[in-house]
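debug: dumping io for the single-chain case to check the tokenizer round-trip. Nothing else runs in this session.
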Amino acid sequence: MIRRLRNRNNSALSFARPLRIERLESRQMLSITVDTLVDENNGVGVGAGTSLHEATLAAAPGDTINFSVTGTINLVSVLPAINKNLTIAGPGRD
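debug: decoded output
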């Protein structure tokens, strides 16, 4: 099928083949940043920010959890078990 269109100068434009839509590969978040010392679990970015608890639950295998805060996180509940490959990178000791 050849489609003929006109540009602003009324010149004919032709396309030798029709446009096609292709499915993209799946996307994933590669890093999540913990930006609060509050231990909460009400959704990433909701409430005080993203907690370690929320980041651990939201992370996909291969993701990195970073920290933009320093201090002590006082846990009010048990953190979920980490049963996937994650990198946790903080501002503390190497």
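debug: round-trip ok. The mean pLDDT is 80.
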